[in-house]
Every structure is written in C-alpha cells, then in structure tokens.
Amino acid sequence: MDSPSSTTGKRSRASSLVSDLSDSSTKRTRVDQEIEEMLQVSQTSQLSDTGLQTYASAEASLEPAERDETYYLQDGSFVLRVQNTLFNVHRTLLAKDGSLFSSMFTLPQGDQEAEGTSDNCPVHLTGETVPEFKNFLWVLYALPHELAEITLPQIDLSRLNRLIDIARVSFKYHFRSVETWALDVINEQVNRKPAPPIFCLPSTTTALLHTSNTLTASASSFATQAPQATSPQAIASNGALISRLMRLAQLCAHEKLLYTMISVLKMLMGHSIQYAHLAMTLADELDLRPLRGVAYFEVMQNAHVVVPQPRRARADEASPERWAVLDADGRLLVTPAQKLRLLTGYHRLTLVWERLRATPLPFEHASACSATWHQHGCTQCWLDFWKEKTRSDAVLQLGLADVLGRLRAISKEFVRWGSATYMHQDCRTAVRKVIQEKIRQVEEALPDYFVEDSADL
Questions:
Q1: Share of residues in the chain with pLDDT > 90 (%)
Q2: Across the chain, which distance is largest between two alpha carbons, in Å?
Q3: 302: pLDDT confidence band, cut at 50, 70 and 90?
Q4: Where do the record's region annotations for Disordered lie (predicted)?
Q5: The CA-based dihedral angle spanning residues 109, 113, 114, 120, taken in that order and rounded to the nearest 10 degrees
Q6: Which residue has the higher pLDDT, 283 or 318?
Q7: CA 33, 35, 39, 40 torsion: positive or negative?
Q8: C-alpha dist (Å) from residue 47 to 42, 43, 100, 131, 220
Q9: For position 421, what pLDDT does the model report?
Q10: Which one, of 398, 401, 302, lies nearest residue 356 by Cα?
Q11: Predicted pLDDT at 20
Q12: 45-to-7, 55, 173 alpha-carbon distances in Å
C-alpha cells in the first residue's frame, strides 16, 4: 500500500497527465495506468488504519529473487513476489472467497505486460515475510488430513504461529472464511480441555482458569511442568504470545478470542506486576476498556515507585529484555501518559472513598421493619456500624484509593456482625445487597477513573 505522500504524488502526476490527453495516445495509456493504480489504492485504503500494506504496482527490485521451493508451481498462473522470493500459484485459487485479488484481476492492464504473468513482472506484496505468506498459501493448498492435524489437541507453538499468520494475512487480503476458520481454531485451542502448554502458567492460575466465570466455558488445565510465570523466560514467552493473540483478535474483531486473552491476562496480573504493566500497555494500545481499569488499578496498588520510561533500543519480541519493565532499583517503568493516568485515577478514587466514608450507603427499609420495628433505631444501627467500620484497622490498612478493597472489607465485617439487636433481618439482607451493588458499580466505572479527560466522577 502506498504511503499518503506517494499517493498524493500519484494523484498530482495523474492530474498533469489528464491535461495532456490530446497530445498522444501513449500518454493516454499512461493516464489509464495511473488511474488504475489509484483505484487500487482506493480499494485497499480501508486497511491503512491497521498498518498493513497490500499488493502494489512497483518496479522490479534490483536484488535478485529466488523461486520458492514449495509454492513456485510449474502449472501456476500468477507470479507474486514477497521480499526476495517468487511464488507461482493459481489465479483461480487467489480469486476465491471474495478476496482483494479477485478485484485486482478485473482491472484493465493496458498495453504493457500484465503483472503476475512472469518472473520479470510479478505482483509485489509488501507487509508480510516469506514464512508468513507461505503459511497462508499452506491453508489454500492443504489436504483434509493436514487441516485436521492442525486442529488436534496439544497444539504446539509452531502450529499456533502458523494459524496466527493465516488469520492475519487472510484478514489483510479479505479471505473472510479462511480468516474466520483460523481465528475459531485458535480460540478453540486456547480454551481446549486440557489445553496445551502454550502459556507458562503456575498451578494456582490453572485452578482459577477452571472455575473462573470471566472465562469462556473452558476448563483449561495448562501444563503443570511449565516454568514459573514470574521467571524472566516465562514473562517473555507469555508476554510475546499474549500480545500477538490480543492484537490479532482486536485487528480481526474476534470478540471470543479477545475476551479469552483478556481473562488469561487478568489471571496472570496477580502473579507479577510485569503482567499488569503488559495489560496496561495493551489496554492503551488497543483501547480495551474492560482491561484498562483492572490493569491500572493493579499497577496503582502494587507498584512501589513509578518513573517515566526511558528510551530503549528495540529488542526481540520474545526476549526477556523486551519485557523487562523494572529498573535496577525495582521501580516500574511507565510512559509519562501512563503515569498521568495513574495519578488521575488515584486522585479520583480517593475522592470517591471520602464521599462514601462521609455518607453511609442508603438502603430501603423492609416493609416488615416499618410494621414491627422502629425504623429510626434500625437506621441508627446501620449508621453506627458504617462509622465504626470505615475507621477499623481492616479498612485503614488498605490504600486510600483502594475503594474496592475497603468496600469488600466492610462487607466481610457486616457478615461477621451477627444479629444486630436494633436492625431487622430483612433490612440486613437489603444492606448486604446495597454493598455488593456499590462494589459492582465501582468495578464497572473503574476504567473511567484512569482517563485524563473524563468528567469528575
């Protein structure tokens, strides 16, 4: 896909050529070619926001190209070039599934040699590597038993990476059914029972994955012999894989896979602050509201010191250095924007708690209380309890901005309170529901506390 500057240049060239149409038939041919190229850009402009590039007319590179050993077919009818490798595949296969290639094949070619007809005039594809494109071609030519093999239990990382490449390239070139198939298989593998050891999860997280209601209906039992989730190798492995899967799910708008990966990341946050930092970063990058609140809240509660992140050289995606977000003193490294959101969230949550502390949660008295009890005494009993427990050690030992933790502590104290002499049992039940509802409301609004431009909450 051409950059905005190159596209503007093409339009200016086309404009000047159009003014000289009457000069010669040769110029008319060049105008047609320019217009065709601009149409090509227009058809694929919807992919520009994803940062992906599509096939584009380009002069042959001066670097020599080699024929791919597997997918340069002798009976192929369409030559493509990815990096320095040539592929010769079947035009009819590429035109299936309503792909962008089918639109390309309908464009007039003019008097020049049609692109894709020879090694000297291939269609150039940019934006993917040779292994990625070969994985995509694999699914187009795979036999039934080969497709069945990739969906078998205990999938390994090599097969999972193949599926990721298939889904991404299929999305880019609009192979909708292939894209959906690959994403569904990935989601099924991540949720498989028992699931393969593609994540390095400790046994405690495995147990949570069995019972969590936040996950899809899977009872995943990840390998018990996987390295500890807090080791540098595990953080690098988990971080790279989770990031790839979440970006893929967001790119392709596959809600099931995205929801699954958010749940996995939520589980891991409790084991290392580095996972919370990863969740916070992905939530910002992908604008994931369900993840932003819990990630920022976790970092705010558990990061001892937050300092601006210095510029670092790019490292390999799966290397421990890439995911090292703690400095030599153990301080969490964040961007200035993230630090501002953390401070904003802390300020707002402290204000929320001050309002709650000063004003006990209101509740509606039960009808039986009005008939047989003195409502004033029932209300006073609740006010005294709230005033006492909001100043108790169980509450004060928690952070000032830990509104959720403090409300949960009060809820536990209320359960331990037993039968209060001056409070009706039905009113006690109503109060428990009110406390739980307030916890739910704060959880739901949590992402909004960490947004700079939100109204005061």
A1: 43
A2: 102
A3: confident
A4: 1-31
A5: -150
A6: 283
A7: positive
A8: 10, 9, 11, 21, 35
A9: 61
A10: 401
A11: 42
A12: 11, 12, 12
Vertex 114: Cα angle to 110 and 119 (nearest 5): 155
Tokens describing residue 205:
């997280």
Long-range contacts at 424-429 (CB < 8 A, ≥ 24 apart)? 424/365, 424/366, 424/368, 424/369, 424/372, 424/373, 424/378, 426/366, 426/368, 426/369, 427/363, 427/365, 427/366, 427/369, 427/378, 427/382, 429/366
Tell me how far apart the alpha carbons of residues 242 and 229 are, in angstroms, rounded to a whole number. Answer: 13
Cα separation, 335 vs 309, in Å, equals: 5
| CB crowding 25-44: b at 16 or more within 10 Å, else e | eebbebbbbbbebbebbeeb
* pLDDT tens-digit map of 396-443: 999 999 999 999 999 998 888 766 567 878 888 889 999 999 999 999
The dihedral of CA 82, 85, 88, 90: what is its sign? negative
Q: How far apart are CA 324 and CA 236, in angstroms?
A: 8
Question: What count of other Cβ atoms lies within 10 Å of the Cβ of residue 286?
Answer: 17
Is the confidence at residue 191, as pLDDT, over 50?
yes
**Considering only 125-139, 346-360, 378-392, 430-444, which range has the smallest mean pLDDT?**
378-392
> Could you give the CA distance from residue 317 to residue 301 in angstroms, rounded to a whole number?
28
Contact 67, 60 (CB under 8 A): no
With a CB cutoff of 8 Å and minimum separation 6, the contacts of 175 are 96, 97, 99, 169
- pTM more than 0.70: yes
Give yes or no for a contact between 89 and 71, defined as CB atoms under 8 angstroms apart. yes
What's the token pair of residue 34?
Answer: 């320019």
Tokens of 310: 């210095």
- Residue whose token pair is 């187009």: 140
Q: Where are the alpha helices (DSSP H) in 320-449?
A: 336-358, 367-372, 375-389, 393-396, 403-416, 425-449
